[in-house]
Amino acid sequence: MTNPSDATLVIIPTYNELENLPLIVGRVRAATPEVDILIVDDNSPDGTGAKADELAAEDEHVNVLHREGKGGLCGAYVAGFQWGLEREYTVLCEMDADGSHAPEQLHLLLAEIDAGADLVIGSRYVPGGKVVNWPKKRWILSKGGNAYISLMLGGGLSDMTAGYRAYRRAVLEEMDLDELSNAGYIFQVDLAWRANVAGFDVREVPITFTEREIGESKLDGSFVKDSLFEVTRWGVKHRAGQLAEMAGVTRSVIGYEYNRWNRNRRR
Q: Which residues form the Glycosyltransferase 2-like domain (predicted)?
């Protein structure tokens, strides 16, 4: 009996991750030797792309996709998804290059896929999940932002901004990847929300998120403002659509009851 996770691709975007890349690739290969890896490098000036080519030359499970210029995390994942969908992979995963997503926990996500989930999110904010080495202010900002996102969009998910994920290919085939929002890290919310609205089985598993030890974070504070503005816009539009749908159903029910009452009155 085969499982969906038997054909898994782990996509690792890179930009200036020369020191981290061999470490994360080695950990993935040790933890889940059966999966393939795709390194998507955005023309890193520090030589990450060349290192990726070296790793690929040494290991048939490692592949490299070079992109011109720094195109952003969303663009890197979209390119990786498209590369994987053009091949026979049934599960495609997102994983950071900096070690914040523990490859040793990938099996938790894949087990849920094999148990029937369509999208599995490695969550910091469900019971059992935790964050290591984050300043309190950043934790509050992330936790509060996710609570706001959940309130505005619904769906019952605790960590829609999380970037440690496993998708069945059917989820990504359903999406128009070119339409994904690219306001900061909001594309992660966009994907999770679209999957939820489309009726896919979206689950969360607890993971330990560890702040990077080597290099600097690519994340700046501007994503908070941009992301929450975008989520607010989606939420208002979504709620307006729900209210319009509810109003239409109410009118139909009232009309049906009135017509039935009128027919009975004439008898």
A: 10-174
What is the C-alpha to C-alpha distance for residues 157 and 145, in angstroms, rounded to an integer?
A: 12
pLDDT of residue 266: 66
Class of domain 4-218: alpha beta
Q: Are 160 and 193 in contact (CB under 8 A)?
A: yes
Please state, in angstroms and rounded to a whole number, the distance separating the CA atoms of residues 41 and 20.
Answer: 13
Task: Identify the sign of the CA torsion 89, 115, 31, 120.
Answer: positive
Retrieve residue 185's tokens.
């890290």
Q: How far is CA 146 from the centre of its chain?
A: 14
Q: Which two tokens stand for residue 241?
A: 């659509």
Q: Is the pLDDT of residue 30 over 60?
A: yes
Q: Are 9 and 64 in contact (CB under 8 A)?
A: no
Residue with tokens 């995963």: 93
Which range has the worst mean pLDDT, 81-95, 167-181, 189-203, 243-257?
243-257
DSSP state of 144: H
Going by C-alpha positions, the residue among 208, 233, 209 that lies closest to residue 219 is 209
Q: Identify whether the C-beta of residue 9 lies closer than 8 Å to the C-beta of residue 84.
A: yes
| Residue 258 pLDDT exceeds 90 | no
Q: Where are the domains of the chain?
A: 4-218
Helix (H) or strand (E) holding 130: strand 130-132
What DSSP designation does 101 have? Answer: B
Tokens standing for residue 174: 């359903």
Residue 141: per-residue pLDDT? 86
Residue keyed to tokens 């969906």: 4
